[in-house]
Amino acid sequence: MEDDTKLIDAARAGDKQAFGRLVQRYEKTVYSFAFKICRDKGKAEEAMQETFINAYRGLKSFSGKSKFSTWLYRIITNNCLMMHRKKSHEPVVSLEDTDLFGESGELQVPHWGETPHDAVLNNELKDILDKAIQKLPLEYRIVFVMRDVEGLSTEEVGKSLKLSVPAIKSRLHRARLFLRNELNPYFTK
Amino acid sequence: MKLTDHKKYLLEMCEKVDRDLTSPTCKKLREHLENCPDCAAHYDSLKKTIILYRNYDVDYKGSCCKEVLARLELEQPIKINLPSKGPTQKTTRAIQKRRR
Question: Rounded to whole angstroms, how far apart are CA atoms B9 and B17?
Fold first, then answer.
């Protein structure tokens, strides 16, 4: 398999077929990440196409210091943010830490039952996961997906979003807690 | 144990949920989780939240390569076949004027 650098160099020189091979190589990654952010097939496809078009136009600015995929993540993120700002009127959601302490002042944490550990989740559960994450403000959702789902390091996420490490940690912490609390009723039935 | 201590651990576990709790920096948290069933339940639910989203497999069978390349083709400068260079009507009139 040709390595990315050769294809990027060829694409920079105007070889659109070389860029086409990069598209084929990364389209699943880009679509999957866009879907995890947008949670909508149509929007994810739109974001994917825009990402590759923007990537082609901006190839000259790709320094090669980061992985090509990390650079693509940045472009997808910007596209998703732009699409989101254009089309939605997101309700303000409070991310204040939910009180886990009951009226008595005692810590009250219900135990979750078994959750599916295999890769195949049923549609009902997927729907619950979609609804929960859609309530999470996009800035937090992006950090959660990049860090916890895609497995990027905190530093990589920070560089990609141009945010400090403490800012990433703070958003991640709140996102994790928010999602856990949203899913809590489902798993403590 | 005071409620503030539990809160402190709840914050810490949220930060360290993806780490290996056997590392020395997590010793206190690990010991607390061993002795506090509520905090252990909370830690377990945080961990499961992340695993659920990680296991959510996105189905993609399409291909956008053709569409992307087609859109890029449209960006090529449009070539128009111009007639070979010769005097335009305007320049011809100017030359005739000068001759007169």
Answer: 11
